[in-house]
Each structure stands twice: as structure tokens, then as C-alpha cells.
Amino acid sequence: MSERMRKVNEALRHVLADGVESLGDPGLGFVTVTAVRASADLGHAEVYVSVLGSEKRRSSSLEALDRAHGVLQSRVAKELHLKRTPQLSFHYDETVDRAMRLNELLAQNRPSDEPDPE
């Protein structure tokens, strides 16, 4: 990835994170924008989010983000002044879930005489 695309992705992440915080949708849980991957032509951008809570909360939050798509895309257009405003698609970021599962597996396999690293 070029330095320019890295900067564009980070700018998109920052604007979208601020935009998500300002949404008033009751279906939106505690959402964190973890990453954005825009295509080189800025035609579309995949927005990865983590959601605190249950599977039901995750689903509800992703639906709320889909409903707010236009508001968030408009905010990106106003704040970033890109040649093209990417079409946003929201995806759940499973990185946190995988890390927690890995931590559980490591804890299960830790010898009983070894101290807990926390």
C-alpha cells in the first residue's frame, strides 16, 4: 500500500469514527471504527468496526450503520474534499474476537505453575 493510500485510509477512519459518535440511532451500540480500506480509485471503501456486546447488538449496530450510510458518506465528502467520495460498506472486524479466543486457548494450555501474565 502506498503512503498516500495509507494516509487516505487513516483520514477516512478518523472522519468516520467522529461521524459514528455523532449518530443518534438507538440501534447503534458501542461501535469503534478499527480500519478503513479504500480502493485505489476511491470508488469504494470497506469500513471495519468492532461492537461491544452480544451478537444481537452487533447485528443491530451494523444495520444502524447501513441506515446512516448516506449521512456518513456526506460527512466524508464535506470534510476530506477527495476527488471521489468512496461508496462505504461496513463489516464487523473479528480481530478482537480472534485475539480473545487465542488468549483463552493460551490460558488453557499454560502450566499451572506459570503465573498469569496480567
For the record, the count of structural domains works out to 1
Helix content: 40-55%
Q: Please identify, by name, the CATH architecture.
A: 2-Layer Sandwich
Distance between the termini: 35 Å
Pattern of helices and strands: HEEHHEH
The general outline is: globular
* Average pLDDT rating: 87
How many strands, what sense, and barrel or not for the largest sheet? Answer: 3 strands, mixed
Number of strands: 3
Spatial strand sequence of the major β-sheet: 1-2-3
- Share of β-strand residues: 15-25%
Radius of gyration: 17 Å
CATH class: Alpha Beta
The CATH topology label is GMP Synthetase, Chain A, domain 3
Q: Count the helices. How many? A: 4
The computed structural class is alpha+beta
What is the H level of CATH, i.e. the homologous superfamily? K homology (KH) domain
Low-confidence stretches: none
What topology does this entry show?
Blueprint (H helix, E strand, L loop, with lengths): L2 H20 L7 E9 L5 E9 L2 H13 L1 H12 L6 E6 L2 H15 L9
Parallel strand pairs: 2-3
Antiparallel strand pairs: 1-2
Helix pairs in contact: 1-3
Folded structure, characterized:
The structure is a single chain. The protein is of the alpha+beta class and 118 residues long. It has one domain: GMP Synthetase, Chain A, domain 3 (2-Layer Sandwich). The protein is built from 4 helices and 3 strands; from the N terminus they run H-E-E-H-H-E-H. It has helices at residues 3-22, 55-67, 69-80, 95-109, and strands spanning 30-38, 44-52, 87-92. It has a 3-stranded mixed beta sheet. A hairpin with a 5-residue loop joins strand 1 (30-38) and strand 2. The radius of gyration is 17 Å and the shape is globular.
